Amino acid sequence: MDNDKRPLSPHIQVYRWQLTMLLSIMHRASGIALVAGLFILVYWLNALASGPESFAQAQSIFGSFLGMLVMFGFTAALYFHLCNGIRHLIWDAGHGIGKQQAFNSGRTVLIATGVLTLTSWLVGLIFF
Amino acid sequence: MDLRTPYSRVHHLGSAKSGLGHWWWQRVTAVILVPLLIWFILSLVCLAGADYVTTVAWFKRPLVSAAWVVLLGALFYHAQLGLQVVIEDYVHTELLKIAALLAVKFFTFLLGAAAIIAVLRVAIGA
C-alpha cells in the first residue's frame, strides 16, 4: 500500500524500556531461537537412530566446551519460554493482568529461568 | 454470540481467516508441552553423557517413545504456529508472506517427520 508517508503513532523508540516489554520481546526471540534448537534436536535423534558411531560423534560435539555453551544457552531459552509461556496462559485465563501483578510475575519468570537453568546444569554435571 | 455486523452477515462475510483456530491450538499445544518439556529436560539432565546402549534402552521403553512422539508433534506444531505469527507481523508483501508461510509449514512438517521417524527407528529397530 502507498501510505508510507502517513504519520505513525509513537513506536518503541520513544518508550522508556521496562521489564514487561522486554519480556514480551524476549518471548518471541527465545521462540525463534528454539526453532534453531529443533534442528539440533533432529540431528541428535537421527544420530542416535543411525548407530553407535554417529551417536558417539554427536555426544562428543555436545560434550565439547563450545557444545556445552550452546546447550546452556538453549536451556536458558527453553526455561524462559516455558516459564513466560505459563505466565501467558495464566493471563489467557484472565488472571494476573494488573500492572503490579504483571511486573511481579515477570520478575518471577526471570528468577525462575536463572534458578532452573543453573540447577539443571549443576545437577547434570555433578551427578551424571 | 455473533460479533459480525448485520451487513457482513447477510453477505456471508466473516474475517475469511482462521484466527481463533490458530489462537486455540497455540494454547492447546502450549498446555500439552508444559508437562512434556519438564519431563524432557529432566530426562536429558539424567541422560547427560550417557552411552549409546543406555540411551537406546531408555528410548525403547514404550511410554518413553510414546511421550517422545507426542512431544515432537506438539513441539513442531507449536513452532509452526509461532513462526506463522512472526511472519504475519513482519512480512507485508502478500506474495512473499504466502511463500514464507508455505515454506514454514513445509519445513516444520518435514523436520517434525524426520524427528518422529528417528524416534521410531530407535524404538522399533534391532
Describe this structure in words.
- The complex is a heterodimer of chains A (128) and B (126).
- Chain A has helices spanning 19-49, 52-63, 65-92, 99-127.
- Chain A contains four helices and no strands.
- Helix content of chain A is 78%, strand content 0%.
- Chain A has one domain (18-127): Fumarate reductase/succinate dehydrogenase, transmembrane subunit (3 helical TM bundles of succinate and fumarate reductases), CATH 1.20.1300.
- Chain A is extended, with a radius of gyration of 20 Å.
- Helix content of chain B is 82%, strand content 0%.
- Chain B has one domain (18-124): Fumarate reductase/succinate dehydrogenase, transmembrane subunit (3 helical TM bundles of succinate and fumarate reductases), CATH 1.20.1300.10.
- Chain A binds chain B through residues 28, 31-32, 34-35, 38-39, 41-42, 45-46, 48-49, 51-52, 55-56, 59, 63, 75, 78-79, 82, 85-86, 88-89, 92, 120, 123-125, 128, and chain B through 27, 30-31, 33-34, 37-38, 41, 44-50, 52, 55-56, 59, 75-76, 79, 82-83, 86, 111, 114-115, 117-119, 121-122, 125.
Task: Furnish the topology, listing elements before pairings.
The complex is a heterodimer of chains A (about 130) and B (about 130).
Chain A: H1 19-49, H2 52-63, H3 65-92, H4 99-127
Helix pairs in contact in A: 1-2, 1-3, 2-3, 3-4
Chain B: H1 6-10, H2 19-47, H3 52-60, H4 62-90, H5 94-124
Helix pairs in contact in B: 2-4, 4-5
Report the strand count of chain B: 0
* N to C succession of SSEs of chain A: HHHH
The CATH topology of chain B is what?
A: 3 helical TM bundles of succinate and fumarate reductases
> What oligomeric state do these chains adopt?
heterodimer
pLDDT < 50 runs, ≥5 residues of chain B: none
Mean pLDDT, all residues of chain A: 93
Radius of gyration of chain A: 20 Å
Number of strands of chain A: 0
Question: Treating each run of at least 4 consecutive H or I residues as one helix, how many helices of chain B?
Answer: 5
Major sheet description of chain A: none
- Look at the structure and name the CATH superfamily of chain A: Fumarate reductase/succinate dehydrogenase, transmembrane subunit
Distance between the termini of chain A: 58 Å
> What structural category characterises the helix and strand content of chain A?
mainly alpha
Question: Distance between termini of chain B?
Answer: 56 Å
The total of helices of chain A stands at 4
CATH topology of chain A: 3 helical TM bundles of succinate and fumarate reductases
